[in-house]
Structures are given as structure tokens and as C-alpha cells.
Amino acid sequence: MIDPVIDLSLGLALSLLFAGAAWHKVSDLRGFEAALRGYDLLPARTVPIASKLLPLVETSIALGLVYGPTRPAAAGAAISILLLYSASIALNLARGRRDIDCGCFAAPSRAPLNGWLLARNLALAAASYALVWPCRPRELIWMDWLTIATTLIALSLLWLAGQRLAETGSALRRMGGNR
After folding, report:
1. How close are the terminal C-alpha atoms of the chain, in Å?
2. Residue of 6, 11, 32 whose CA lies nearest to 105
3. If the chain, 179 residues long, is cut into consecutive pieces of 10 residues, what is the mean pLDDT of each piece?
4. What pLDDT is stored for residue 179 in this prediction?
5. 101 φ, ψ to 5°?
6. Which residues contact 121 (CB under 8 A, 6 or more apart)?
7. 3-class secondary-structure state, position 141
């Protein structure tokens, strides 16, 4: 059984992540559709439908991760979509197609496919797996809520730092520098 502080912290952090990913896709449907088309995995006529469906799936996952009783099912859906994204990235990396935009999050510049994205998605799937386990019932006290809030802030800052490092590495490569 998982402690409710870990369950709630992971659930809320992943919910924020999926909500942000869905918002990015909805806020630039044309750009996301182009990124999805770049993967060259779907028939051309299904890409516009998929580009609208994926943000709905991510929004549903985000909402499901917030509410305790739906969290395990939403975590299962999160694992599935993250593994699908990972397979799509791995297939294109195996094809040598690193230059296409991942379509993951809004960034000042395109985010080309790389091993970091694959590892990130697999780590997120592993974190989601922890939410499939039953949660040990207990009352949360003020210290638990403080721990949850601090954990969300720390994870958000780590995520932003990781995104910034990934963008910096891409920018340096474009300028001809080393990572």
C-alpha cells in the first residue's frame, strides 16, 4: 500500500503535467497537428482527429488523477498514453528521425526528438504506476498538507529546470556548440 501523501503528491503533480500538456496542444492545434503529422505513424486523414482527441484524453487523465477514487484508473490511462508516446518517439529515433518536433510542451523553439524525451516519458510512466497501488487509509494532518505543497513546488521547479536544460542543449547544438 502507498502512503496517502505520496499518492496525493504524485497524483497532483502528474495531473498538472497532463493538464499543461493538454493546454499546450489545444492552444496551438495547428502546431500540434503538424508535430503529430511529423511522426509519420498515422494515416494522413486521421491526424486532424487525433490532434483533437489526444488533448481530450490528457485532460481526462488530469481530472481523473485529482480525485482519489478515479486515480488508479487514470494512472492506468496515463501509463498507456505515456508508453504510446514513448513507442512513437523510440520508433522515430530508430528510423533516424531526430529532427521532428516532439509536440510535447510549448517552447520558444521546436523540441527535436532525443533519448531524454524517451527516458522522461518512461520515468513518468513508472511514477504513474505507483498510483495504481492501493492507498493506505489515514487522516492527513497539517504536516502532510505542507509536505504535499512543498513536493508540488519542488517537482514543478525540477520540471522547469529540466525543460530549460533541454532547450539550452538544443539551442547550443543549433549554434554549433557542445553540450
Report:
1. 42
2. 32
3. 92 95 93 93 96 97 95 97 96 92 70 86 95 90 94 89 70 58
4. 47
5. -75, 135
6. 82, 83, 85, 86, 89
7. coil
H/E stretch holding 139: none
67, 51 Cβ separation under 8 angstroms:
no
For residues 157 and 55, what is the distance between their CA atoms, to the nearest angstrom?
24
- Look at the block and give the residue holding cell 520540471: 159
Quick one: which of 77, 55, 54, 53 has its CA closest to 64?
A: 77
* Cα gap 100→81, rounded to integer Å: 20
For 60-87, what is each residue's pLDDT tens digit? 999 999 998 999 999 999 999 999 999 9
Chain position carrying cell 522522461: 120
